[in-house]
Amino acid sequence: MLLSKVISCVMVGALVLASNLSQAQENFLQETHERQLKLAQILGKKELSDKSKADMLIMQAAALDSLDRSQEALPLVEQALRIATPEQHASFTVTKATIFFTQGRAADALALLAPLLDSERQAAAAAKPDERAGRLAMHQSGFILAAFSSVELGDWKNALAYLADTEYTSDEPEFAEYRAVVYRYIMARANDASLANANLEKQAVHIEKNSKSHYGALLRMWQGADNLTELSRLIARKDAEEQQDAFAESLFYIGAYTKYVKRDPALALNSLQQLNRISPYGSLEWVHGKRVLAL
Predict the structure, then answer these.
(1) What's CA 33's distance to the chain center, in Å?
(2) For 106, how many CA atoms within 13 A lie in the half-sphere containing its CB?
(3) Which of 186, 215, 248 lies closest to 21 in space, CA to CA?
């Protein structure tokens, strides 16, 4: 089957999955963030130490940002940073950078992240070899956010460098697979084989051949496989918010493939329309997709 026909079939399947999710009349991700917001607001009213109060403020800010209410979130982060302990400051800074990214301020996000992540890189380099990945994994969300921010600025070299340092722990077995999908996306955007990262490339090829997750299916589809049935089955197997999140990721990366590899922006826009339909609140791919798939 021609690849263009494969992608068209994928979008038909996407319509079916989107219809099933919308018919449920529940937005699981939205409900989760709303619960977190309410909990943080309730706990924040109690007698708390400055440290605990700062945690509740950040929890509220993160939930508000995920609910597309970043203007309300930013003052809470600023308030939290004023009373934060030194140990809290790094993670709070990542939250602030995330809000900037949501607002379309990739350069501002990187201005916050770069010194923090450079410091962590230096600390990881000085650590024992078997401790390096664990050190970097502590700032996983910061590194992946820096990678996407660099993409939005067209800085492919740094996007790949940040992605290469986006490490994971042993209890995150699928993160390497997610990273491989992001790697394929960045390489397609860069359109420059000389920027390839040997380790990430090797992992991506291995995962394409062996993974049984929806990430593996996406990687194989990215290489031209006709595996709509496999991808749909793997997503349908998930429950509630995990399914919604996996579907959102799939819609974005299918859309990115159709736009940046197949050069079909109209079909990519269809992916964005389906993303908007399921409204996966808190999804990095949805935030990013609104900007890059709509162009």
Answers:
(1) 16
(2) 18
(3) 248
Question: CA 295, CA 255: separation in Å to the nearest integer?
Answer: 12
Q: What is the pLDDT of residues 80-93, one digit of tens each?
A: 999 999 999 999 99
Whole-angstrom distance, CA of residue 138 vs CA of residue 120: 9
What's the CA gap between 4 and 94, in Å, rounded? 39
Helices (H), 127-213: 129-137, 140-152, 156-164, 175-190, 198-210
Tokens of 214: 């929806």
For residues 62 and 28, is the Cβ–Cβ distance under 8 A? no
Q: What percent of the chain has pLDDT over 90?
A: 74
Which residues does 60 contact at the CB level (< 8 Å), separation at least 6? 37, 40, 41, 44, 73, 76
Q: Does domain 3-26+103-292 have CATH number 3.40.1350?
A: no
8 Å CB contact between 107 and 158: no
Rounded to two decimals, what is the model's pTM?
0.91
